[in-house]
Write the structure tokens for this entry.
Amino acid sequence: MDPWCVVTLASGADVLLGYALRHSRTGGLSWVRSTPIVSLDEEAGRAETESGRRYALGRRIALIDLPRVSEEGFIAYILLIAREEGTIPDNNLDLETAALWLMAQKAARWLHVDPPRRARPELDAWWAEHQEAYLAMRAVWKRGRQGEDG
């Protein structure tokens, strides 16, 4: 993960939120939230979570700096953590549009095309143009990992 931060949930559990270049379940190239942290060694740049996943860690950032560091990361925080925790910091955010935009960022990286802006008409047009190619690429990736853990 690079960048990454630790987020403490209402339950008291600490999880990682970060940009994963590789991830056995999602394919990577996107922001992910981990299961609770079992061990964290910042010096070695390693973490392990309850799911058994091991993460290589790059640059740590503070959660408070996330909106400045990465708009995409901040939207991922809202959708993957804050919404579930009931602590959404931006009540004017259209969550459906934000989710489509976040998925489009990952899809654009997989497809090597420019991502859309967050405006809904542009998002809808972008998905109409690229959805089929993205789903086909993901299907090939999933077939290639049959029998793999994760």
Notes: The two ends are 17 Å apart (CA to CA). The mean pLDDT is 90. Residues 95 and 132 are 23 Å apart (CA to CA). Helices lie at 66-69, 71-85, 95-111, 120-144.
